[in-house]
Design a protein that fits this description.
The protein has about 400 residues and is of the alpha/beta class. Helix content is about 40%, strand content about 20%. The chain contains 15 helices and 17 strands. The chain has a 7-stranded mixed sheet with strand order 4-12-11-10-7-5-6, with helices on both faces. Helix 3 packs antiparallel against helix 12 (about 290-305), helix 4 packs across helix 12 and helix 13 (about 305-325) runs parallel beside helix 15. The structure holds pyridoxal-5'-phosphate (PLP). The site of pyridoxal-5'-phosphate (PLP) has 15 residues, from helix 5.
């Protein structure tokens, strides 16, 4: 057995086998490249599932975290600390929302969003028992609450019964949403660009009509931008492109560029008539380390115009991906927005990802038929050319 195989064998003795990991042991990263314990180099078009927005080892970002570690790591939410204000102010500024609550993950942000919507309706109506409308093929996380609004039977089935009162509508089909409305509906939750569900962007008309329905009936609109937010689509949040503002916004993944942090943000109207002290909390959420990372990430993104660059480089990225659709019969379509793209394949996606790793390219899947790419937001045209070269070699092997 190689050193790597021995390592994996021994690690698996202790790990609860809940992931099928690829047999790669990543040791360090630099820019958009990863290096494994054999010293092999990989171009990373997955960025740790959309997290490593600034790539690996950014000097300025690293210094911000090191400085914070030297000062204070954790205080709990019983107190204030300097990076808390900086991170809150940064998130409110870039989102155009009014208030923020920091969480430790995406799923936890969704949980907070759902509780906020329920409490809002409870205060308004004086009774509980409200319903939530979610979309088919949505993904909102793996905790019981977030799984309850996730539109995938495969993920849900073993854990039934989940949270009551969730109805599913079809994404981009306004009539199907109307069919699920009742006088107990308190919220509609959706991803402006569906990630895990297959890289489907919402139609602007769909979002606008949902916004109108929500306004008319005092239903809260929750946008889950955990994957599509923080610059990934070429604007800070995808909803800003569509010109439809939610009442509650969830965010995570790229938000701290590598540290475990999420958030849900609300408008003043929601903040003033929903959760109050005692209703919700978290021990770690928004601690000094992650807040320093969030404030630093936003600052770096703005100073270097990283989101603007994503928008500028998107047409080049799309042209490369479209060329694969033209060149290979088993690549049937491209879908997505900005640096959140998918290629629809008729060959097994898992096999493509494994072969790509052999060729030094890290890719993701979305379901069983979409090859998903979420490159770091600092990825350049030259990196895209290199990706095209490596993926071309992989696809050539499948053509034989
Ligand atoms: C990843 C993701 C989540 C869950 O986030 P975790 O940090 O894994 O809990 C929720 N919603 C969307 C849209 C996601 O992409």
């Amino acid at each position: 057995m190689s050193e790597k195989e021995t390592y994996i064998d021994e690690a698996e003795k202790y790990l609860f086998h809940v992931y099928n990991r690829f047999p790669v042991v990543f040791e360090r990263g630099e820019g958009v490249r990863l290096y494994d314990t054999d010293g092999k180099e990989y171009l990373d078009f997955g960025s740790g599932i959309g997290v490593m927005a600034l790539g690996y080892g950014d000097e300025e970002y690293r210094q911000i975290l090191k400085d914070q570690i030297d000062r204070i790591l954790h205080t709990s939410n019983l107190f204030y600390h300097p990076p808390l204000k900086a991170a809150a102010k940064a998130m409110v500024k870039v989102s155009g929302m009014d208030k923020v609550f920091f969480t430790n993950s995406g799923a936890e942000a969704v949980e907070g969003a759902l509780k906020t919507a329920k409490k809002y309706a409870y205060l308004r109506d004086g009774v509980s028992g409200h319903e939530i409308i979610a979309m088919g093929h949505s993904f909102h996380g793996r905790t019981v609450g977030s799984l309850s609004v996730t539109g995938s039977e495969h993920y849900r089935e073993p854990f039934l019964p989940l949270m009551e009162g969730v109805r599913f509508a079809e994404f981009n089909n306004i009539d199907s949403v109307k069919e699920q409305l009742t006088d107990r509906t308190c919220a509609i939750i959706l991803e402006p660009v569906q990630g895990e569900g297959g890289l489907y962007p919402a139609k602007e008309s769909f979002l606008k009509e949902i916004r109108r329905i929500c306004d008319e009936r005092d239903i809260l609109l929750i946008f889950d931008e955990i994957q599509c937010g923080m610059g990934r689509t070429g604007s800070m949040f995808a909803f800003q492109k569509f010109g439809v503002r939610p009442d509650i916004l969830t965010c995570a993944k790229a938000m701290g560029a590598g540290v475990p942090v999420g958030a849900f943000l609300v408008t003043d109207r929601v903040a003033e008539a929903s959760l109050v002290p005692g209703d919700h909390g978290t021990t770690y959420g928004g601690n000094p380390l992650v807040c320093a990372a969030v404030a630093g990430t936003v600052d770096i993104m703005e100073k270097r115009n990283i989101v603007g660059r994503v928008a500028e480089r998107t047409p080049y990225f799309e042209r490369i991906l479209d060329s694969f659709v033209e060149r290979y019969g088993f690549v049937t379509a491209r879908r997505g927005m900005g640096f959140m793209q998918g290629l629809v394949l008729t060959i097994p996606v898992g096999d493509v990802i494994r072969r790509a790793l052999d060729h030094g390219l890290v890719l993701l899947s979305a379901g069983s038929d979409v090859l998903r790419m979420l490159p770091p937001l600092v990825t350049t045209e030259a990196d895209m050319d290199e990706m095209a070269k490596r993926l071309g070699r992989v696809f050539d092997e499948f053509e034989k």
